[in-house]
Q: What sequence folds into this?
């Protein structure tokens, strides 16, 4: 799999090739070689490739995996400061709920999000309980609040609703 470091390495070599082609193009224009305009096109294409590779080195960020996290579905995301995830309505432990909220906070982070007044993003976790046939009850399980100013997520606060987790388990 490609990493941001490998794209940066490719961008570096592509930049070197672009500069070499630009010098060759200037020489071709000065000496009036017959294929000078082909070199202009090739140099322009290489410039676009170099910028694209550099952009890929900035945009790709590796996903971190949290052990014990269960699969979740994003059911609401306003692309700024709020998201809601849903977990299956089976028995989920406190540790798994905390790991799932941390995983979602890591996965849903992006540079383009704008937090609330404090720069935070809120990710709420819920599940659906079926106490009777034909009756569905949404259950709030917890929330993760992370600061959007740093990628590492060091300022992550997880609050779980122990009462509802016990209700889901029993």
A:
């Amino acid at each position: 799999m490609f990493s941001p470091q490998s794209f940066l390495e490719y961008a570096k070599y592509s930049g070197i090739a672009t500069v070499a082609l630009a010098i060759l193009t200037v020489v071709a224009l000065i000496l009036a070689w017959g294929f000078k305009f082909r070199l202009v096109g090739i140099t322009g294409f290489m410039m676009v490739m170099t910028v694209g590779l550099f952009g890929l080195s900035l945009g790709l960020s590796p996903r971190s995996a949290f052990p014990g996290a269960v699969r979740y579905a994003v059911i609401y995301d306003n692309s700024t400061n709020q998201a809601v995830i849903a977990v299956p309505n089976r028995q989920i432990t406190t540790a798994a709920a905390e790991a799932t909220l941390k995983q979602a906070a890591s996965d849903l982070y992006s540079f383009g999000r704008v937090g609330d007044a404090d720069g935070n993003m809120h990710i709420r976790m819920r599940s659906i309980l079926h106490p009777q046939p034909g009756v569905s009850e949404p259950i709030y399980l917890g929330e993760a609040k992370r600061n959007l100013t740093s990628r590492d997520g060091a300022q992550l606060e997880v609050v779980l609703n122990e009462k509802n987790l016990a209700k889901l388990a029993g």
